[in-house]
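sorry for the late reply, my laptop died twice this morning and i had to redo everyting from scratch. anyway the thing you sent over, i finally got around to it. pasting the sequence first so we're on the same page, its 406 residues, then the predicted structure underneath. double check i copied it right bc i was rushing
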Amino acid sequence: MERLDKVVLAYSGGLDTSVILKWIQKKYACEVITFTADLGQEEELEGLEEKALSTGASKAYIEDLQEEFVRDFVWPLFRAGAVYEGRYLLGTSIARPLIAKRMAEIALEEKAQAVAHGATGKGNDQIRFELTIMALEPSLRIIAPWREWDLHSRTHLLEFARQNRIPVPVTPEKLYSCDRNLLHLSFEGAELEDPWSEPGEGSYHLAVPPEKAPDEPQQITLGFERGNLVSLDGQSTGSLELVKRLNRIGGRHGIGRLDMVENRFIGMKSRGVYETPGGTIIYAAHRDLEGLCLDRETLHLRNELVPQYSRLVYNGFWFSPEREALQALMDRIQENVTGEVRLKLYKGSIYPLGRRSPNSLYNPELATFEQDQVFNQQDAAGFIRLQGLRLMSVNSLRKTKKITGQ
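ok and here's the structure:
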């Protein structure tokens, strides 16, 4: 096996990756460079560079990738209408390919032979990280300590940290395993491991409980061009700021909270709570505008492909040829999805109030219940009869079989 001189580690600064940093140094006797992607974790990034270096890293990268995250990952996801198992907006799933992509680039720049991550052997993230590396730079070796070491509990990790003088803050034990980025915040563990248990108060962070939301609704207007969000209440402030503003607005009204049991790619079920306030508003407005701008068969085709596209993202195949091919189709479908949607936000719910588009396919003369000059209602009789031909044929066959006793 090739000797390792350098390893680039995806680093969060928590107990797991701090222990992993030192464990790799000891096991492989090599240099470890840490990489942390700033995807909107905010206060979680404070002091990470100093902590990584003090734990033994030779270099610590912390890079702001928020603009790229929104432009090249979040917007394509929303253009495709992606939602996993009909509910989850893929907040964690969509961040992993970007983190792994940049980690591989840094490994090549630093002439490292391997990359490492802190995902466990039970989760989806190990698959997402490693499939991305295999798709973009298969020459890199992948180190996954949770599949190699004998540290199988928090107690073991804490003891390893103590023995190796890894600083671990003396704070109450963290209740949940969380993942945060610009799009969402996820919670797993603690009482959530029992599907019957109600989530605790500590699992509310980005969004208030609906009963604590304002008693007065708020109206907002979202503008889209070719399927991408471009404005809020007529103001175009850039993609990043739009998402941040909608997170604050949605969170204040208790919007975007999801509690679900999902099917992991690895083969087990897991229960998670997700807060996606801004993303939930964008998704609702985008889907509403599509009803105005997309013809029936195109919309139905796209909807049939959404589960397949969403599984590819969830399962870690962002850089696969099939996801890229589907994306090309989704983007072609979005070419006419331009316009505005007016929404009412109230106590955890989103109510579309109106929508308009220069590419609207809605014809008031056809839709009216009043007298019109463009639709001959007698045409419907022939249409219905043609649709019913096969049903009458099936009925005739059934009657024949019944008479002959077949």
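The longest helix spans residues 379-404.
thats about all i looked at so far, will dig more tmrw
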